[in-house]
Each structure stands twice: as C-alpha cells, then as structure tokens.
Design brief:
single chain, about 300 residues, mainly beta, 10-stranded mixed beta sheet, 4-stranded mixed beta sheet, 2 helices, 21 strands
C-alpha cells in the first residue's frame, strides 16, 4: 500500500469516527398506559379512604373504555391545575351552542392499552411528582335487577352497559352504549348518562335505554385539594408518582408510565326502589312509568402512578 493510500484510509477512518460521534442521541419516548384496578383503595375527593353513605349503595363496574381529554404533569404541590406541563388536550367545539369538549375527538382506551406516547424532549427537563388525567367519558358493565317486567316477572343480577360523560360540558353527536347507538347532536352537562339493559334473548323485547343525570358531581380524587384545588366542573383525577419521574435530557431508554385507576365501588346510587344493595329498575312503577334508582356518582376512586424503563 502506497503512502497516499495509507493517508486516504486514515482520513476515511477519521471521517467515519467523527460522524458516529456526532450522531444525534435518540429521543426516547414516554408511554402512558391505563389500568383499571377493582382492588385499589377507594378514596374520596380529597384523596382519603371513603366508605358508602347511608341510604346509598355501590358496586365495582367492569370498565370497557374511557375517554381521556387531557394529561398534565406537575412538579410540586403548589402547581395549579392547568399550569403544569400539558401533554395533550382534546379540542373543544361550539357546535352545540356553547364551548364543549368534542366527544368525537376523545382518546378512547381499554384496560392495558397505551393511551398516549410523547418524545421525552417535548416534556422537558425536570422532576415530576404528580399526574392529572382528565377523564371525560366512561363506558362500563354493571349488574342490575329489573322487577315487574310485563308477562315475565322479575330479573335479578342481570348485566347492562352504562355510559357517562364527565367533562363539564360535552358535545355529542352519536355514541354506542352497548349494542345500541344513541344519537344526541347537542351538548350535555357533566354527569349525563345512558344505560342499556341486556336481558336474555327470549326477553330482549323488554330491553330499553334509560337516560339520566347524576344527582351529584362525579368524584374527582385530588390529594392536592388543600394546595391546588380543582376548578368547578373539572374532570381531572390526580395521582402521585410512586417515585418522581425525573428527566435529565440524557436518557436513552423509553419509559412506560402506568396510570392505575381505582374502580373500587365507583358506581354509586341512591336506594329507593328496594333497599337491597342492588341497583334496581322497576319496569312498571306505581306511576305507570319505568323507574330506576337514581345514580349518584360514577367517578374513579383514585389514581396510582408508577413507571418503568423499557
């Protein structure tokens, strides 16, 4: 090999080494995964353990899907809601006559699914203690009793599908409850719900859709209620990282954040048809109109947050 060839080879090796050393560090992702936990502690709006009020009853629903309006990270106890790092926010619309969350654009996710992913560099350097998740919609299965069904008697421990809208104002075109679609094309306030019964096929002619409004604002658990209260009508559920999420800008691995929502007796109603701890509907009430025990609350009962490198 001539001297010129040796020099050319050395220059080529130098260029290759220089190029590899200047390669941009890969930007890892932060993935947000949802989990619905029926055994997680049941909390009140202030993040404290909570029982069931006298005259009411509750059950643990089987959640099918939730609709998430927003995810926000906060670095400390004093960061006001909406002033943290907002990772995404669902568009609003005035199609219903006033500003409302556009249900058709909500992120709908099931248990175990990745709800959202974002490059770590877009979050920013910092140590994040808290997550706020705006849950604007829930769809779940519940058990119910239906009495006085014409020509059929009563049905106990049947399963139906419940859909509820939790944002302060929701613009809804059409949505599927269980097997049936409900068309609205209008705004609905926080706590609006629909329930579809699902009896055995031989009695399916007695199935119907009930619509109503929760008699109280849904519980939105916020352990920061003393230092960072939620605005009226908020659908934010607040949870603390088991270990703060620290971003230095030097990370090379993806991170998966698990958002674990407590479904522990999160569906609550006022017992009025029968005081039996079951959610009861009377197909032929004394007034001649179907009656169903009034829904009090369907908000999640806590949010636990942890992460792992992948």
């Amino acid at each position: 090999m001539t001297l010129e060839q040796k020099i050319s080879l050395l220059l080529l090796s130098f260029v290759v080494l220089l190029g590899s050393s200047c390669q941009k560090r890969p930007d890892p992702l932060v993935h947000f995964r949802v989990k619905f936990d029926p055994l997680q502690e049941r909390l009140n709006a202030n993040g404290l353990p909570s029982g069931i009020t006298a005259g009411r009853a509750a059950q643990t629903p089987l959640v099918n899907v939730i609709g998430v309006q927003q995810i926000e990270l906060a670095t400390g106890n004093l960061i006001a809601a909406g002033k943290g790092v907002i990772l995404f926010s669902t568009p609003t619309t005035i199609a219903g006559g006033e500003t409302a969350v556009d249900f058709g654009q909500l992120k709908l996710v099931k248990d175990g699914e990745i709800m959202f992913s974002i490059p770590m560099s877009q979050i920013g350097i910092g140590s994040y203690d808290w997550v706020r998740v705006a849950v604007a919609y829930q769809n779940f299965h519940v058990q119910f009793n239906m009495t006085n069904v014409p020509f059929s008697g009563s049905f106990n421990d049947e399963r139906g599908t419940f859909a509820t809208f939790l944002a302060s104002n929701n613009y809804i075109t059409k949505y599927r409850i269980g097997t049936k679609d409900e068309t609205v094309n209008a705004n609905r306030k926080q706590g609006y719900w629909s329930f579809e019964t699902k009896l055995a096929s031989a009695y399916s002619s007695n199935d119907r859709i009930y619509n109503g409004q929760a008699i109280e604002s849904p519980t939105m658990v916020n352990p920061l209620s003393q230092t960072s209260p939620l605005p009226t009508g908020s659908c934010l559920v607040t949870g603390r990282f088991d270990t703060p999420l620290s971003i230095t800008g030097k990370e090379t691995q993806d991170v998966t954040v698990t958002l674990s929502f407590s479904t522990n007796r999160s569906f609550e109603w006022e017992e009025s048809v029968t005081r039996n701890g079951k959610w009861d509907a009377d197909r032929q009430a004394n007034t001649g109109q179907p009656a169903i025990e009034r829904v009090v609350d369907a908000g999640f009962r806590g949010l636990r947050v942890w992460y792992e490198n992948r």
